Amino acid sequence: MPELPELEVVCEVLNRRVASQVIERVEVLPPGGAIVVRDYTRQGLAAALEGHRFEAIARRGQFLRFAVAKSPLWLVINPKLTGRLQLATPGDKRYAKTALVLTLADGQELRYVDQKTMGQVYLTARVEEVPGYAGMGPEALEISLAEFKERLRPFRGEIKGILVRSEFVAGIGNAYADEIL
Hints:
The chain is an alpha+beta fold. It has helices at residues 4-17, 32-36, 45-49, 145-152, 159-163, 174-180, and strands at 23-28, 37-39, 54-60, 63-68, 74-78, 83-88, 98-104, 109-114, 120-124.
């Protein structure tokens, strides 16, 4: 599962290479696209995104949040265990489990690939309605020691089980909880 460090790097790369580029074409591909993509706007991804650009891409916990320029809409991705974003050229082989392809003005494609279709891609006007988003605790990189201790007080059980709970602290999964401990 991509965790805070990996998603921070992905976010940096996407802001350099994808943000500010016009989205020329949107493809939701079967069979995975129907399982992975959730359109809370009921506009359709193509209608909502084509001709627009992402003005900023940010990470919150284990989610990536793409702000659609000059629009109230957000594309929110929760890659979960097997979801990956791939920057590719149109000639590059598409993996069988490619669920979403955004063709950008420079000819690159931003692809969402999910081998087990566990992740989710949401189009929404309100990021809070994305399952698991609103209930996240503070970011792991921003929480103070005092706040950490205070938040830890009501929890009982093994520390690893607490660290991986996104409502306790956002962005830590199994791998980094093991490293922390």
